[in-house]
Amino acid sequence: MNPSELRSALALAGIFGLRMLGLFLLLPVFSIHAKDLPGGDQAILIGLALGIFNIVQACFHIPLGRLSDRIGRKTVVLWGLSLFVVGALICAAKDDLLWISIGRGVMGAGAISAAVSAWVADLTREQVRSQAMAIVGASISLSFAISLVAAAPLYRAITLSGMFVVLAILGVVAMVMAYFVLPDKKPEVLAQQDSIKVVFLRPELMRLNIGVFVLNATQVAMFLVVPRLLEQAGFPLAAHWQIYLSVVLLSFVFMVPLLIYGEKKQRIRLVLLIAIILLIIAETIFTQASTVTLITVALLIYFVGFNLLEALQPSLVTRYAKESKGTALGVYNTTQSIGLFSGALLGGWLMDSHGDLSVFAAGTVLLVCWLIIAWSMGEMPVKATNSKDVATKISP
Fold first, then answer.
1. Which of 333, 213, 223 is nearest to 282 (CA)?
2. Longest dimension (CA), the chain
3. 155 CB-side CA count, 13 A
4. How would you class 203 by CB atoms within 10 Å of its CB: exposed for 0-12, middle for 13-18, buried for 19 or more?
5. What is the pTM of this model?
6. What CATH number should be reported for the domain holding residue 365?
7. What's the total number of domains in the chain?
8. pLDDT (tens digit per residue) in 333-345
9. What average pLDDT does the segment 165-175 reach?
């Protein structure tokens, strides 16, 4: 990537990552804090408060993605971030499950994921776009890692209301980056674009959409239970960050060689399948996890698979949906949001009705179904080559 492309990719990754903290920062502590709030004795209400952010997002990803095609990415992103800030301040003002649910719904209404991903495509050449998407994808893992490390100490220092104020401040920082750092390059409108129905029913994209649904549903459901498991094993909430930091850093060490292998050897399909299998192994270990050691091993295996999938899947969407990137990314992010909401709601219901470990059993079933669907994938699209490569191949 040239300096302009790298700067744009890093800035958009920063915007994306800061906003994702609005989801991730709450996962390690919310279920424990909410137990002391009115209605907090019902896990399904906790799951609803946690997941409403995502179901509201699901309603706006496609409309806002398409709107950004017409009026420009910057306007849509700034509007979405302003809603994020307002919603965070609503949550900070009232330590009550109802008001937290309302505030998180407002935060979710600023659904900018599709617009941000399309902005990346606008500001990068096709031959380096996968690298740029990987940088943005890495921001998700980084924000998740930061949230796992910082959530408990931050919660202990400033309580949940203070954490929402921090999110509002981060939203303002993202708005400043979007306004001053990034150019407002309005995308060219294609003469003919595929309809939402055509994009949604394309088999390659359907597999990726199913994958992101299952990945995020099982993730958010898992983190309704993991903090409780660690506490039951005698590991206090204040020390959870030690485990999270260790496993996240180690997971990158194991993940990067697999990713490099897949790219260099054109074995992306194999790496993707391995990542899903790693998630299944982790969920299976969680069902038997009664010690801190077993929980830590399961988390490490889980994060290796999770980070691989977060890096691979969005890039593959852009490579499969060449002429309809905005629409395809809107559908992808919509199914992601529905997965996050469904995981929170299903996880809460399973905890109430069948106990904590049932969440991992259900996650294993969903992941096995995804593995069966993903197994039928063909070879991944070949990356675009640059002009020098093309010239070299053509010349005698």
1. 223
2. 76
3. 22
4. exposed
5. 0.73
6. 1.20.1250.20
7. 1
8. 888 878 888 888 8
9. 92
